[in-house]
């Protein structure tokens, strides 16, 4: 994401939609993906962070993982129950966040 930050091509969206049903959210997130594809710059690094602050704690891991699996464009999923260890430090869980997040990115270098 550093390249996206340097050229000011990052967007953040808060998603308060309920109910927390994967099919409903996947359909809603397709709108975000369409916005991501058409946002400037059309080529070059860009990222969109989607935050889901109202997902109940017991559901966040399963829910975000299901949505991420369904939407292939989503590069990374972050939530409190993500047990993926850090790339360089296996004792650091860099994908854990207090609120569930999905990140869209068009650059492989942007995925971490």
Q: Kindly name the structural category.
A: alpha+beta
Largest sheet: 4 strands, mixed
Q: Based on CA inertia axes, which overall geometry fits? A: globular
Q: What is the tally of beta strands?
A: 4
Q: Total number of helical segments?
A: 3
- How far the N terminus sits from the C terminus, by CA atoms, comes to 7 Å
Q: Give the helix proportion (percent range).
A: 25-40%
Spatial order of the strands forming the largest sheet: 1-2-4-3
Short account of what is shown:
The chain is an alpha+beta fold and 112 residues long. The protein has a 4-stranded mixed beta sheet with strand order 1-2-4-3, with helices on one face.
Walk me through what this model shows:
The protein has about 110 residues and is α+β, with helices and mostly antiparallel strands. The protein has one domain (about 1-110). It has three helices and four strands, in the order H-E-H-E-H-E-E. It has helices spanning about 1-5, 20-40, 55-70; strands at about 10-15, 45-50, 75-80, 100-105. It has a four-stranded mixed β-sheet, covered by helices on one side. Strand 1 (about 10-15), helix 2 and strand 2 (about 45-50) form a beta-alpha-beta unit. Helix 2 packs across helix 3. It starts with a helix and ends in a 7-residue tail after the last strand.
Helix and strand layout, with pairings?
Elements: H1 2-6, E1 10-14, H2 22-38, E2 47-51, H3 57-70, E3 74-78, E4 101-105
Parallel strand pairs: 1-2
Antiparallel strand pairs: 2-4, 3-4
Helix pairs in contact: 2-3
């Amino acid at each position: 994401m550093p390249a996206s930050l340097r050229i000011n091509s990052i967007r953040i969206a808060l998603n308060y939609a309920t109910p927390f049903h994967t099919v409903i959210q996947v359909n809603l997130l397709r709108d975000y993906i369409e916005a991501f594809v058409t946002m400037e710059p059309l080529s070059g690094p860009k990222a969109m962070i989607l935050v889901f602050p109202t997902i109940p704690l017991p559901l966040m891991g399963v829910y975000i993982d299901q949505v991420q699996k369904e939407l292939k464009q989503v590069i990374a999923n972050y939530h409190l129950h993500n047990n993926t260890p850090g790339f360089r430090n296996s004792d650091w869980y860099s994908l854990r966040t207090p609120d569930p997040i999905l990140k869209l990115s068009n650059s492989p270098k942007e995925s971490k």
